[in-house]
Fold this sequence. Notes:
Chain A is of the alpha/beta class. Chain A contains 10 helices and 10 strands. In chain A, strands 6-7-8-3-9-10 form a 6-stranded mixed beta sheet, sandwiched between helices. A 4-stranded antiparallel beta sheet of chain A has the order 2-1-4-5, covered by helices on one side.
Amino acid sequence: MLNIIDLHTYYGDSHVLQGVNIQVEQGTVAAVVGRNGVGKTTLCRSIVGFTPVRAGRVVFNGDDITNLASHTIASRRISLVPQGRRIFASLTVQENLAIASQPSPSAGAWTMEKIFSVFPRLAERGRHRGDELSGGEQQMLAIARALVANPILLLMDEPTEGLAPAVVATVGRLIRRVKDEGTSILLVEQNAAFAVQVSDIAYVMSKGTIVHSSDPRALWRNEEIKTQFLGVPPPRTLRRD
Amino acid sequence: MTYLITQTLNGLFSAALLFLIASGLTLAFGVMRIVNIAHGSFYMLGAYVAYTVTARTQSLLAGAVAAMAGVALVGFAVERFFLRRLAAQPLAQMMMTMGFALVFRDAALMIWGGDPFTLPYPPGLAGSFAAGDVVFPLYRLFVVLVAAAVGVALWAVNEKTLLGAKLRAAVDDPEMAGGTGINVGLLSGLVFAAGAALAAFGGVMGGPILGGYPGMDFDLLPLAFVVVIIGGMGSLKGALAGSIVVGLVDNFGKALVPELSYFTLFAPMVIVLAIKPTGLYGRA
Ligand SMILES: Nc1ncnc2c1ncn2[C@@H]1O[C@H](COP(=O)(O)OP(=O)(O)OP(=O)(O)O)[C@@H](O)[C@H]1O
Ligand SMILES: [Mg+2]
């Protein structure tokens, strides 16, 4: 459903994405893992139209969406949970959700009611401004804001960054739920241990290209890749639940 | 005492006009970071268009509507076809608005000539009313009330509607606003057009008293900028506070020490900036 074909993105003269190829299959979670600064966020920015793509294509359900305006891409139901949350600080929780809402006729669609039943904390904080929320609450709001658009494809850029373990577990459960309800997900994470638990395929990114892709469990058993590209310390057993 | 009250009411009339004009200036800055030197031109064009249309139709209302619609269209085009090409280049944008200000000034001179004019009073508002010793022109009071209503309407749109929330989102983080499906470019064009229309409305409302004349655009511009800078660039509340300060200070200053009128205009700005560099309600 999402095909990223030989994508090249620059910041000025700096060549950050150097030919990225990724596929996300319908109804699955694809993870992109890699160290600091390898270009994961740039990949998300390129897909949603924040940073212009110099070469290559982004194909979404058969349509070429490369370099469309970001509001057009959003209206095609691609939603982003950005790195650093980027909650609108002067808007209330309710307003943050209202401006992003794109109703959908399908059964089980995300409505305000459904959001507030899944995120009761956001209901309680409904009238508070974005900048009055805790980090964990902001992350929940960032995810909720993406979901009220009823995305076909959800991009998540480091959704576990800076969160307490209990909140990370909540994010993990949410990812599984959203996937089970039919939304495809591209998950970008430095936290490879988390990403391999919730994904169906894992891509390893280094210096702006994909250097490896495999089943997440196989990746987690591949000590060479882990030490070379993910900076993961020597093995312990993987818990998959 | 009577003198004090009369001058205060006159000051509030100036404040009301300034608020109409400065609110558009501050909105354009808040949403697009555009320092619009041509904003005084929108005020001038409003008065001139209203003059022509009112003369043709014998209806001030038709003149006002035509002025606001026409200037809104001009503003929209300026933003859409010129300023947007220079997005994220504030200095270049400012120079371009400077260029437009000069073009509009000369165009007005060519089209309307150099004769000053005044607009007619709306029916029934030409008189004045007396409360004790104080005689106050009805029309000035009317302008104050209309500006207050405009202020309430702007506040309500900004704070209570989905459109207002989208606007504030675009101010907070324009890129992310685009990522949540908001067409920030279109929104910017509409804000710029609405600001231009408000300035034109200011020109119409001031018309019966201040009239129109070549140079009115650049007479007004410094006042509007002082208002916006005192209040804080981008803040509507600030535009209101700044208008009242400038309206009153400028009126009393000109009445009491006319030879120091520029000093009395800029002194409050300097004081506010020294204490709070972002203005009363501005954000860093
Ligand atoms: N706006 C920018 N201008 C110039 N260079 C940038 C910009 N944003 C990122 N870079 C550079 O591009 C490279 C890739 O950055 P990117 O943010 O995509 O990495 P990342 O994999 O998301 O890192 P992290 O794990 O820290 O989030 C880095 O070297 C970074 O310094
Ligand atoms: Mg990143």
